[in-house]
């Protein structure tokens, strides 16, 4: 009969797929934590510049960047020294995760970078207390949600979002610049949501 043959064929197919994925991941993203290659570093710096401009130098003062699988970690020299006694193969995480590389090797910032990068923000948006929870549920920001916005923020700029107490909540990209705020309706979209601290609850397993 053809049934055993089909089962054998399916088994062979999934076995080949499993081994392909296993070797692909371990070849492209080795388990050992390592320094970034030049092309990886270039992509990370390009993304960081959109958020913090020339403050990248300040960000890296006394720190280095490491790659572990797809994730990029921001590690202080002191922490690196203290962790040197641990075999790199055994390290699961170290320092602060700034973001990760996708399968197509594009670098994407993650919410875990917020506390590190927000202090170097080029552009900022402050939300009213009444709009804070709306943003923390991954919603976009309307003009009526905004308490204030830093000056000279252009369209398509990456912005950090804060509450009224200057606590960083996340980041996004502007659909309207700061010069447009006084001339638009309250229900006009101003900032497109990209990431927020609510992810620590919504996507805890993925983040950890």
UniProtKB/TrEMBL annotation:
Subcellular location: Nucleus, Nucleolus
Domain PUA: 123-198
Domain of life according to the entry: Eukaryota
InterPro entries per record: NIP7_N, Nip7_N_euk, PUA, PUA-like_sf, PUA_sf, Ribosomal_synth_fac_NIP7, UPF0113_PUA
Protein's recorded name: Ribosome biogenesis protein Nip7
Listed Gene3D superfamilies: 3.10.450.220, PUA domain (2.30.130.10)
GO molecular function: RNA binding
Gene Ontology biological-process entries: ribosome assembly
TM ranges: 6-25
Organism expressing this protein natively: Hamiltosporidium tvaerminnensis
Keywords, ordered alphabetically: Membrane, Nucleus, Ribosome biogenesis, RNA-binding, Transmembrane, Transmembrane helix
